[in-house]
């Protein structure tokens, strides 16, 4: 009776067994290596290739391959061999040169490098430059803006306003107030082509101006409701009339905390006299260059996205009607913005950013 070729016995030293058990149970071990380690451990227990293949759900050929590799090369035989292929043509010096040129220089005819211009400069292919940029997350074509406030009272103002958002006072109303000035009533020079299946809406790139209007808005931090009023100018006189509108809309029993930016019309003697005559109003100015802390600015951004950017208005009356309708819809189902970051978290974030862009290295 044929019994096949004899299988050589597989024995392990203590060090080999410890290493194989560590590879088999360590979570960071590659899946293939862990599987091979378990295979050798089962073979070392005296089991046949058929039994090991059945228990580990492998083929007998796979079990025989790794048993033979281990017997011939021991632990090194379980590691993957270098794969065949073309030799590496992009050296570390090439990568360093691409990085240095990208980060420290600019082309003579542009403000930033493209993959093709940098490839010509470094003597590499455009694909090679693209791969290096992706590996190091370099995107010279993109840019982000930032603004750091230079207000000497930045910390105090941030704590003051964020405190109103997170812990509003009792029997008081917190209003974020500002103007969206010079909103243009724009009409396209030719009729729009509406959206169809497989075709986006199309419009001409040029437009006709039909005047401007300014929106004065006050947003209730707690409820999300908006008080809006239109004026063709945004001087102190118009702002004072808007304060009268707020006064008429707010219950007389409540104090009113108004969050404003540092625009000049908010600090004129006319406004100061109005505030003196209405002592229940408490004004909180945002830090200079930090309008992001005023929540009405976020509402202005939503208004622009949903109503203004793609809107077509043939007169300022149409524009004001469209904005007024948007305010009405907003007030039917108001949703307040939820402020989540504390003042300490904001200040810590600003400190980290300043540290990152500082050239001092400290």
What attributes does this structure have?
44% helix; 362 residues; five-stranded mixed sheet; Nucleotidyltransferase, domain 5; alpha/beta; single chain
Provide a descriptive summary of the structure in words:
By secondary structure, the protein is an alpha/beta fold. The chain has 3 domains: 14-78; 92-135; 158-190 and 204-352, 2-Layer Sandwich (Nucleotidyltransferase, domain 5), CATH 3.30.420.10. 44% of the residues lie in helices and 13% in strands. It has helices at residues 14-25, 31-44, 49-56, 60-73, 92-104, 115-122, 126-135, 154-166, 236-249, 269-277, 295-308, 316-332, 343-357; strands at residues 172-188, 207-220, 226-231, 255-260, 281-285. The protein has a 5-stranded mixed beta sheet. α10 (269-277) links the parallel β4 (255-260) and β5 (281-285). α3 crosses α4 (60-73), α6 (115-122) crosses α7 and α8 runs antiparallel to α13 (343-357). The longest helix is centred in the last third of the chain and has 17 residues, at 316-332. The radius of gyration is 35 Å and the shape is elongated. The relative contact order is 0.09. The model has no long low-confidence stretch (mean pLDDT 88).
